[in-house]
């Protein structure tokens, strides 16, 4: 048994993938053995396709290095990722700072912060300098980096522009398109302008509402006064002390008054006689007052040209006439 090919010390060997007989195909897709003599005393080598050894030999050696173009592409990809992280971090910080200031009531301060950041960013783009950090103090060169990156990475990403890419509208447009942080500054500037416009509209709306309330109050007060009767309205109006604006006194009794010297007077207001013993007046009529009465009436007669028809003498109210002052000659 020890010398029999295909048998081991403990019994027949079980070989998976081979039939153990010459000329019979093996199992599991393996090729058949050449003979039973090869199964005994020698070590069997697995059959390997020569074409499968070439990759192993190649991988066993030194791996090829990437080309300069690939390295440049990888470097630019890393720069874009850093710029994206920086831009989104700046936008987040600016919006957070603006929300914090606006919630605390410092709306003008939040507007000033956003405008200052936008101006500093556009100025840095035009000069080819690194984009500033909104959280950095004004005197700092660039402040701490955004998003946990080191300050050296920010400085390494920002490159000095060449003569063809700097200056002018084209250079600024290229910077805006290639830098997410610059786009973030532009977005902040637009947000600030929109915030200012919203504040202005709110103020105009508030002023308009206040004006409408004031006009409604005046109209309501006028309607209330119109609904009042004449007695309450006269009570609201202060009484005048002018004798010309006062109403004429009641009609005097018939008969001449006594103890009055003749004086020349002039009519200041028009008066229409309500009784036969009264004298109608027109403004400018010259009168001679003969008698005065304590009740306010006086007996007068018209001198000169009569402006209206009717009797030339009678009672007139004393507060409708005044003494005639002769004009002085120069």
TrEMBL record:
Alphabetized UniProt keyword annotations: SH3 domain
Domain SH3: 260-326
InterPro entries: SH3-like_dom_sf, SH3_domain
Cited CDD domains: SH3 (cd00174)
Region of interest: Disordered: 28-76
Gene3D superfamilies listed in its UniProt record: SH3 Domains
Compositionally biased tracts (Low complexity): 28-66
Official protein name in the record: SH3 domain-containing protein
Organism: Neobodo designis (Flagellated protozoan)
């Amino acid at each position: 048994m020890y010398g029999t090919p295909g048998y081991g010390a403990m019994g027949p060997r079980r070989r998976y993938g081979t039939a153990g007989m010459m000329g019979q195909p093996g199992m599991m897709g393996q090729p058949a053995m050449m003979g039973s003599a090869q199964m005994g005393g020698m070590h069997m080598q697995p059959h390997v396709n020569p074409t499968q050894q070439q990759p192993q030999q190649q991988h066993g050696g030194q791996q090829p290095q990437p080309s300069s173009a690939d390295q440049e592409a990888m470097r630019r990809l890393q720069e874009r990722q850093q710029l994206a992280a920086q831009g989104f971090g700046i936008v987040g910080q600016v919006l957070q700072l603006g929300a914090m200031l606006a919630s605390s009531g410092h709306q003008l301060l939040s507007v000033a912060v956003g405008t200052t950041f936008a101006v500093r960013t556009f100025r840095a783009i035009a000069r080819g300098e690194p984009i500033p950090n909104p959280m950095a103090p004004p005197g700092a060169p660039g402040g701490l980096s955004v998003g946990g990156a080191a300050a050296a990475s920010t400085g390494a990403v920002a490159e000095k522009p060449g003569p063809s890419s700097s200056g002018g509208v084209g250079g600024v447009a290229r910077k805006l398109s290639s830098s997410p942080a610059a786009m973030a500054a532009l977005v902040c500037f637009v947000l600030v302008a929109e915030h200012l416009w919203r504040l202005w509209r709110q103020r105009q709306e508030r002023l308009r509402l206040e004006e409408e309330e004031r006009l409604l109050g005046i109209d309501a007060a006028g309607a209330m006064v119109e609904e009042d009767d004449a007695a309450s309205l006269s009570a609201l109006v202060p009484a005048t002390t002018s004798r010309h604006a006062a109403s004429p006194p009641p009609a005097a009794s018939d008969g001449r008054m006594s103890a009055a010297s003749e004086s020349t007077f002039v009519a200041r207001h028009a008066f229409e006689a309500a009784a036969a013993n009264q004298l109608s007046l027109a403004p400018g009529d010259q009168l001679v007052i003969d008698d005065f009465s304590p009740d306010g009436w006086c007996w007068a007669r018209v001198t000169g040209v009569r402006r209206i028809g009717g009797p030339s003498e009678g009672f007139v109210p004393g507060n409708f006439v005044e003494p005639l002052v002769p004009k002085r000659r120069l």
